[in-house]
Amino acid sequence: MVLFRLIALAVCVGISALAQASAQTFPDHPIRIIVPQPPGGGFDTVARVIADPLSAILGQPVIVENKAGAGTLVGTDYAAKAAPDGYTLLLGGTSNMALNLGLYPKLSYDPVKDFAPVGLVVSWPFMLLTRKDLPYKTVKDVVDAARARPDSITFASAGIGSGQHVATAVFAYLAGIKLTHVPYSGAQAAYGDLLGGRVDLFSDNAQTAMPQVKGDTVRPIAVTTATRYSVMPDLPTIKESGLADEDMETWFGLFAPANTPAPILEKLAAAVEKARANPATIEIFRNTGGTLNKNSIAEARDFSRNEAARWSKLLREANIHAE
Length: 323
Fold this sequence. Notes:
Shape: globular
Helix content: 40-55%
Structural class: alpha/beta
Number of strands: 10
CATH architecture of the largest domain: 3-Layer(aba) Sandwich
Number of domains: 2
Radius of gyration: 21 Å
CATH class of the largest domain: Alpha Beta
CATH superfamily of the largest domain: Bordetella uptake gene, domain 1
């Protein structure tokens, strides 16, 4: 028994020593950020903005690699199974790290158990939009019309299970109304039909909604967060209407596979903190109305776990699913 304990202690000491040695030389070759969606979307944009300053800080190329498929499932699962050595990171967000747990009865990965948060980067609210030729100017207008004519009002999304889908579906559930979902293959296609008069509503990430709002092609009704959007302080929240207690934002951060050595996680977290503070990073995100999220590893871990628990519970209660 004593010999077994001595052997176990020696193994632990050896593993710790290897981790320390690995951290001292980390990184000595390029790092990949896996983006679980195609180029051009919110995930991809955040990854590419943060990759440049990270590369300068870490002294190695930081390469953005898009692995799209099945929503965000293919790329996220790939990152979960990568070697826990700090050289493969995931661009995680509300959809793949919180919503999927409630949207899919069986996931090939566990967003809590299979990943170690490195740090959150930026967040935006969703914005409830409508066509300019419709009479809806407030949340109450939409709710009253939906109650008068159940299922007659349509809403677009960038696909079943997407953040855009969930944002509007949760609003409808909390407001006790019935809307008809019309899924598209992405936000661009959804806007095409919204502007073309073929769908009525669309909840989109404020990052990509703002060009449409500034171009006066759509009418913003409200934001989904609990507090107002700093870029448009006169735009109310859905919660303020008193008709739906919605609080949803789209957030993004970097995650490493579980069991990545703590010294490597700490080095990566310090680099992310510096990258967030980079003036160019701040300018890019603030110009699109993003809120930079300053946090420690522990704070990022607690936040992402709470988000996963909160959304999985709400989505199951609302019977919102992706299959």
